[in-house]
Specification:
The complex is a heterodimer of chains A (181) and B (434). Chain A is of the alpha+beta class and 181 residues long. Chain A has 6 helices and 8 strands. Chain A has a single domain, classed as Alpha-Beta Plaits. In chain A, 32% of the residues lie in helices and 14% in strands. The N and C termini of chain A lie far apart (50 Å). In chain B, helix 1 runs parallel beside helix 8. Chain B is globular, with a radius of gyration of 24 Å. Classes of the chains: A alpha+beta (181), B alpha/beta (434). At the A-B interface, helix 2, strand 2, helix 3 and helix 4 of A face helix 8, strand 22, strand 23, helix 9 and helix 11 of B.
Chain lengths: 181, 434
């Protein structure tokens, strides 16, 4: 996590995300597996990896159900985060932006968080001996992965709006398939 | 409300953080017999080598106590608890009154009663003072060879320390393999091979019978059962930890092997709570209560105890044994039930790739109850979550076994197939890479 310089717009955004909370919502049904978000993530974090090629902090998996549904995986910013619970150095902690972030200079690579994350969203980077995970890009107005996502499977949105959208989608599907409207 | 917490490690930190979520007013007092602000206990072996300095050893920033309005009484030992009159007694006779008390005293190293255990140059390795003593001994004396008794996690993390020290270490383990309480024969053999390659002597199925001293009372050698003697100038006893319950004598708090608590971390005495390595925890996979002395559970239980002390009702569902440790270049994880010898009720699937990768999944009917990952540890957390939730596993077990519970290979291939690499390195703050 690179802390934005004081007095900048990025710092202001960082504080705003803390105040209003911001979630990166994943709508797995819309993901086409194009990997644009992965590239955008690499671009955004490349400067944090001076030696090795950037390791993206978002991945897309083929979900385990039939038909190959794609599932973007990134930090879900858990309220009671198991990675914070398990961190033995105290380097992973929720900061003022409301996002669970990592102080990489203190990480020793014990992989306790990798062992605890129920989403498999923490990458053990063996070359650096660091456990890397999504920092939420809280100093961006819109995180780069969300900007890159054309099918809008990743969105920055409140949960009310998101739920309403899902219900509307469902109603449309029901109308189309069952009622023929 | 006056909260008193005995202990100043992960459990205490968890408790303070959750109390302050609910109660901004109450007074919190932390009493600890160690004179240090809260520090990362597993990092003391990193501290010995100097790969972690004093600043990085701190678990929370220096202003944490102030921010959470915690009064600390460090370097003061609690000798007795009097629940009837609601106070604890310190070593110098002073009493501290409490409304809610949390016992988070953790564990103390078990020192087996063998001959010569009190010789100079015999160390435990559980707290910062132990590491400091060990460091002082190694720098003063001419230590060429050392012996570590007990091939557990404490001991294996010590090997990080010895790399820069030019000490030839030998492991003495009572069981027939290293890390015998967590690893099966295959996994243990892989680790042992790496230890041997790094120049560590490994003596399994060996009982340390006596520590031999020279005229000045310093360690000279260690004698094994059967008569073998290993010359050494330092001995680290890492046989295991026991719950630190000395101060509870006569207090009426029920103690079995550890303190007995309910699912809200309450002891049998009203207003007295206990959490962390000192309690007996419900084990989800073994379906019994026993002491699981591991860090994530300590913090978790501290959180639960804190909430309950502050008046919110939170239940603790129980924990599972979990271990994660990088040994040289190999990473290692174990969760839940891992030793499956003579367990016909368990279905075991194993997968091995030469000497590099070993994965073992243990199922009971349709539930995952344990796993060992050696080498490839990616997404071990998914398995941990499956074990802890005890949800029925409907996935393809062979795919899970090959380290591919989420089709990682598909993603890797797709990532490699993308030729148009969009990212390029932009100048920015460089990060120290170890």
């Amino acid at each position: 996590m690179v802390t934005p310089a004081p007095g900048t717009r990025r710092e202001m955004l960082n504080q705003m995300t803390g105040q209003y909370t911001r979630d990166i919502i994943v709508d797995a049904g819309k993901c086409t597996g194009c990997m644009d978000c992965v590239d955008a993530c690499k671009q955004a974090i490349a400067h944090e990896h001076p030696v090795i090629a950037p390791v993206a902090r978002i991945t897309i998996r083929e979900a385990l159900v039939e038909g190959g549904v794609h599932l973007p995986l990134l930090c879900r910013n858990c309220a009671e985060a198991p990675c914070v619970t398990a961190c033995m150095t105290g380097c992973r902690i929720r900061n003022g932006s409301g996002w669970v972030v990592t102080a990489y200079e203190r990480c020793v690579g014990c992989w306790m968080c990798v062992m605890s994350c129920p989403f498999g969203a923490i990458e053990a980077v063996h070359e650096e001996a660091l456990a890397r995970k999504c920092d939420g890009c809280t100093s961006y107005e819109v995180p780069p992965c969300v900007t890159a996502c054309e099918p809008r499977a990743l969105r920055v949105e409140g949960q009310t709006n998101f739920a309403q959208g899902r219900r509307r989608d469902f109603a449309t599907r029901v109308n189309a398939t069952l009622l023929g409207m | 409300m006056r909260y008193v917490i005995i202990g100043n490690s992960y459990t205490a930190v968890g408790a303070v953080e959750s109390i302050r979520e609910l109660d901004r007013q109450g007074e919190i007092i932390i009493i600890s017999d160690e004179p240090y602000a809260t520090y990362c206990r597993p990092l003391i072996t990193y501290w010995i080598t100097g790969s972690v300095d004093a600043e990085k050893l701190a678990l929370r920033p220096a202003n944490w106590y102030e921010d959470h309005r915690v009064t600390t009484r460090l370097g003061q030992k609690v000798v007795n608890i009097v629940p009837e009159s609601r106070h604890v007694v310190l070593e110098d006779g002073e009493t501290v009154a409490f409304d809610r008390l949390l016992i988070a005293t953790g564990g103390k190293p078990f020192m087996p009663p063998i001959e010569g255990i009190d010789a100079e140059g015999v160390f435990a390795m559980a707290k910062l003072d132990d590491a400091k003593e060990f460091n002082a001994w190694v720098s003063q004396e001419h230590v060429e060879a050392g012996v570590i008794v007990g091939a557990g996690l404490i001991c294996l993390s010590l090997f990080k320390a010895m790399e820069g020290m030019n000490i030839k270490f030998t492991l003495v383990e009572l069981l027939d393999r290293v890390l015998g309480i967590a690893l099966d024969h295959t996994a243990s053999g892989m680790i042992e091979k790496r230890l041997l390659a790094a120049g560590v002597g490994v003596r399994t199925s060996s009982l340390a019978e006596a520590i031999l001293q020279d005229e000045q009372g310093r360690v000279r050698a260690i004698r094994l059962k059967g008569g073998d003697e290993i010359p050494c100038q330092a001995v680290v006893m890492a046989v295991g930890m026991r719950p630190n319950v000395d101060l509870l004598e006569g207090s009426g708090v029920e103690v079995n092997r550890g303190i007995v608590v309910d699912d809200g971390m309450r002891t049998n005495v009203p207003g007295v709570y206990a959490a962390g390595d000192v309690v007996e925890t419900w084990d989800i996979v073994n379906e019994m209560s026993h002491v699981i002395a591991i860090l994530p559970l300590a913090y978790e239980q501290g959180r639960i105890a804190g909430w309950n002390m502050a008046g919110a009702e939170r239940r603790y569902p129980g924990g599972i044994p979990l271990n994660s440790l990088p040994i040289f270049d190999t990473s290692l994880m174990t969760m839940g039930i891992t030793i499956t010898d003579d367990r016909p009720d368990l279905e075991v699937l194993t997968h091995q790739e030469a000497d590099q990768v070993y994965r073992k999944l243990v199922f009971r009917e349709d539930r995952l109850v344990g796993a060992i990952l050696v080498g490839d540890i990616a997404h071990g957390g998914v398995l941990t979550a499956l074990i802890r939730s005890q949800a029925p596993v409907t996935y393809d077990r062979q795919a899970m076994l090959k380290g591919d519970p989420l089709d990682i290979e598909v993603t890797r291939q797709r990532e490699a197939a993308r030729k148009n690499v969009l990212w390029e390195r932009t100048p920015g703050p460089a990060l120290a890479v170890r």
